[in-house]
Specification:
Length: 162
Amino acid sequence: MKRAVYPGSFDPVTKGHLDIIERAATIVDELVVGVLNNNVKTPLFSVEERVNMLIDVTRHIPNVRVEAFSGLSVEFVKKCNASFIVRGLRAVTDFEYELQMAQTNRSIDREVDTLFLTTALNYAYISSTIVKEVASYGGDISGFVPPSVVEQVYHKIEQKKQ
Ligand code: PNS
């Protein structure tokens, strides 16, 4: 059984993330999407909301499950009995940070390797940060996030403004 973990903040999940999930799911037997419950960053969505959004948008992929985790990614990988971390590379600007993370993770646990998938070109410029920025000015984010996520982003941003 080849199992991989795709860890991230997913605040919120974008079409770029979903593209990576769909493609990684064809490579491994089971893909666990790990949603970081991060105490340092202040996310727009709670970890439960992020997990629920991901469950919703991955419902059509039978070998994907979604779980929240805290602590080190490699420890979550071990807990899942997985052997790979999946990450998407959008552009060369991602490379330095991703290389550093992959090397750090491998130095913590030599049995955990990172598998990089290049993000589809049409999603290469999309990030959760850009989605929140555009939405905060009332811009159209329907090209950036799955349909079920669009209204949740506007709603949450409005809530936070009050
Ligand atoms: O979606 P993101 O924010 O780019 O994901 C970053 C993530 C969650 C993969 C990374 O911050 C992470 O693995 N955090 C958990 C703590 C950890 O394992 N750190 C060591 C790797 S540098």
